[in-house]
Amino acid sequence: MKMNGAQAVLECLRKEGVDLIFGYPGGVVLKLYDEIYKENFPHILTGHEQGAVHAADGYARATGKVGVVIATSGPGAANLITGIATANMDSIPIVCITGQVANPAIGKDSFQEVDVCGITTPITKHNYLVKNVKELPRVIKEAFFIARTGRPGPVSIDVAADVFNTEFDFNYPEEIKLRGYSGKYIGDSSEIDEVISAIEKSEKPIIFYGGGVTLSDTSEELRKIAQKLGCPITSTIMGLGCIDANEKNYLHFAGMHGSYGANMAIQESDLIIAIGMRFSDRVTGRVADFAPNAKIVHFEIDPAEFNKNVRVDYKVLGDLRWSLPIFREKLNSIQKDFAAKYKNWTQSVLEKAATHPFSYQNEGDQIKPGALIIKINELSDENTIAVTDVGQHQMWAAQFFKTHQPRNFLTSGGLGTMGYGLPAAMGAKLGCPDKKVILFTGDGSIMMNIQELATIADHDIDLKVIIVHNFILGMVGQWQRLFYNHHYSQSELKGKRDFVKIAEAMGVKGYRLEKSEQLETDLPKILSEKGCAVIDVIIPEEENVLPMVPGGKRLDQMLLGTN
Asked: pLDDT, tens digit, for every residue of 324-376?
């Protein structure tokens, strides 16, 4: 079948099941955009390329599909970098298709030329420069395969401008042959036998799981394993929702701003069963003193993660879709009541956790972030997707918003990208139109991609934007308050940012809440309205996220107190 390169790109995307693209046109991709126009291929024009790539990321996290973004050469491609790095740190499958200058102009510092492959090599799972149109079908097929298999991640495809115009005989490959990469991660089941032996010897085990469970869609297996063991359970922020927040043995997330119960249990445990998590510095505290009494089990798909941050005693290398069913079956074959064995340990952990739950302290008619998020939680259903930007509001949302299903709490975990939230929420809603989507953002974060309010208005996207507004870069201010003698160096936001007027100017309804009573009188009505709404919520400036493990401290050296 004869077609040009631009037509071939769209045909390849169809064959990969792509039903929506995010992007922004420019000179060298005009042929591609002309075919998008002719074929009426579903496409969302964002206000900025960074918004497009974060939207593709949010779409991927919420749906489990591969997100797709298109940008032009030079500044268009460069504007994707933060979003690609965000996806890479959290192992999110996206494919980024960028235009490059024409073949004769490559390498000559031509107008709007940047070395996309060179720039993206450290932050992608793989990347390509396509200079021959005949390579396009194979490259796109490989890109989607690489992005979605194994440990997922972003793949970049840079396409020379003349490739889009060149005709060829199109043929989409049925098979993929990649040297050294099969996408399959089947390990050695004897490693699981060693884990079972360690569990039988253990007196104080804890399950500690992360985003790998979300990405592998193995939350049901995890829940069955947790039920069989009956021991305490904790998670990273990236794993929120894989265990129902109401599960009786769930201690909530662990780490720097995690729960007292989870952190203390980790430090007292004699066996940590880590599943699909990478022991980042945000969850370990001072690594030398992490879980000092525990043997550590690590179920992981990527061998590079073993012993990278924390030394492990038992490793299970393989895809969780392979390892967890075997793990569950082997546990079930043992005629032992594990829950009874660990009953006293579990009970003591839960009692300790109850002494310092996530909490806040009411002060007059001020709106406290904990009260705000709890009320929003009450007004949401169990399928609501919560999306966050990065900062204090992110931690408050993680602490107080109860997540019951996987893929229902979306946040930039590894890179901590301010500006992620609004476009990611947009992508999540477009990917899951039947779910309610709520964004928690701050008055600092929202400004970084606020232009996407216009995109949301243009497409009548129904989501609610909660701005936790404290007139300061919240987390920066908290550190300056606690560790830098209240020196608010370039962190205070005292300008007149009227988010209600900004929202209205972009075609979105805007509201402001300033008194606690409005959580009962106004908030329910606003959240029940159809369409997008920006809700500017004024909170006290010097509100801290607590508990907190200061940098360089052990998990059990937490700053406690109420917010």
From this structure: 999 999 999 998 999 999 999 999 999 999 999 999 999 899 999 999 999 99
Please state whether the peptide bond connecting residue 547 to the residue before it is cis, i.e. omega within 30 degrees of 0. Answer: yes
Tokens of 514: 């300033």
Other residues' Cβ atoms within 10 Å of the Cβ of residue 281: 12
Residue pLDDT, tens place only, 485-520 = 999 999 999 878 999 999 999 999 999 999 999 999
State both tokens at 108: 């000559």
Beta strands in 389-500 (DSSP E): 409-410, 437-442, 464-469
* One-letter amino acid of 39: E
| CATH tag for 369-538 (out of 2.60.60.30, 3.40.50.970, 3.50.50.60, 3.30.70.1130) | 3.40.50.970
Round to the nearest angstrom and report the end-to-end CA distance of the chain: 65
Six-digit token string for 12 = 């390849």
Torsion angle defined by CA atoms of residues 128, 129, 131 and 136, in that order, rounded to the nearest 10 degrees: 30
Name the residue among 1, 161, 17 with its Cα closest to residue 97. 161
Q: Say whether pLDDT at 200 is over 80.
A: yes
- Model confidence at 562: pLDDT above 80: no
Token pair 């594990």: residue: 338
In terms of phi and psi (left: phi > 0; alpha: psi -120 to 50; beta: otherwise), the region of 230 is: left
Give 246-292 pLDDT, tens digit per residue. Answer: 999 999 999 999 999 999 999 999 999 999 999 999 999 999 999 99
Distance, in Å, from the CA atom of 344 to the CA atom of 63, rounded to the nearest integer, reads 40
- Give residue 271's region: left, alpha or beta (phi > 0; psi -120 to 50): beta
Q: Of 225, 149, 209, whose CA–CA distance to 183 is shortest?
A: 149
* Domain residue ranges of the chain, discontinuous segments joined by +: 2-169, 190-355, 369-538
Same fold, 2-169 and 369-538: yes
CA–CA distances in Å: residue 72 to residues 144, 152, 164 = 20, 24, 12
What's domain 190-355's superfamily in CATH? TPP-binding domain (3.40.50.1220)
Domain 2-169 class in CATH:
alpha beta
pTM of the model: 0.97
